[in-house]
From TrEMBL:
PANTHER family: DNA POLYMERASE KAPPA, DNA REPAIR POLYMERASE UMUC / TRANSFERASE FAMILY MEMBER. Signal peptide: none annotated. It is found in: Cytoplasm. Binds 2 magnesium ions per subunit. Belongs to the DNA polymerase type-Y family. GO terms for cellular component: cytosol. Mg(2+) binds at D14, D108. The gene is dinB. The active site is at E109. This is DNA polymerase IV. The record marks Y19 as: Substrate discrimination. GO terms for molecular function: damaged DNA binding; DNA-directed DNA polymerase activity; magnesium ion binding. It catalyses: DNA(n) + a 2'-deoxyribonucleoside 5'-triphosphate = DNA(n+1) + diphosphate.
Amino acid sequence: MLANLPIRKIIHVDMDAFYASVEQMDNPKLKGLPIAVGGGGKRGVISAASYEARKFGVKSAMSGTLAVKLCPELIFVRPNYERYSEISKRIRDIFFDYTDLVEPLSLDEAYLDVTHNKKGNPSASLIAQEIRDRIFNDIGLTASAGISINKFIAKVASDYNKPNGQKTVNPEEVLEFLEQLDIRKFYGVGKVTAEKMYQKGIFTGADLKQKSLEYLDNNFGKSGRYYYYIVRGIHNSEVKPDRIRKSLAAERTFSENLSSEVFMLEKLDHIAQEVSKRLHKSNVAGKTITLKIKYSDFTLQTRSKTLPYFISDKSVILETAKDLLYQEKLNNSVRLLGISLSNLNTEDQKKSPEKKSVSVQLKFGF
């Protein structure tokens, strides 16, 4: 089946514990120590954890309180997103030395299509190694990489030899690689779905491959078709260098629950300022303002308003957020507030015409 599909040379580069590694690089005293970026205070949530901290079970999205219980020696570091963005841009500049087909997923990871690359190097594996060497020598950070025929397999492979390693899945190895893979390692299969698959006797790619398209559709809805094809190595999504931002947001979790709207307005002022700053930095504006409210019982509520014109100014964002706050009575005390802008003017930009897929022979120098 693979022989009839477009085969590309795709690299997925994933920085190792990016935020934490930047902090350790900038402050050598933190090297070798368990650190967490963010997560300070009673309500703080961790953005990233160093590998020294991960050994204790500390991970991103975990509360700082739980993290300290797991690792009493944990050191909390305030995040510096401007610094992370600066380093991320330097890393992407390295990517562009090899190909213009770069699709960032976040500050710390990206897909690269090197089927036809600027270096004329036929080996995607050697290109990945060279990129990782340059990131280490020029910037001082380590990265991991996955190399294969499509984005899905490359992303799965990048996690295979982390940290500071890479994994190539050659075209003729794809089916065996996927069949032996634990279902939890499949990108797009979350914790809940993995548990559901376990209950149905699906533990590996080979087990998943035994299930018919009809069975997967009936049991996993719209995702069923995705699972059916990826386990067969079929994922035709191209690397899209012109990914268009659809929203931009900022939010704050408070150390103490807020019950007074007066205090909430003060917090909204800071959040609106941050959203406006990010909009101007990205040179975008939006029409739809959404207020996010998370209550003390962890229930979530959103309230939105669409304006007839694009905005990026803090004062307009703040006034609209205030209107949304007073739109109806709050259900409980509040632990988190957020503001997002969507319906951005980037959505009006014309997308670049898609490049045609390139069909090649199976063995061609990975």
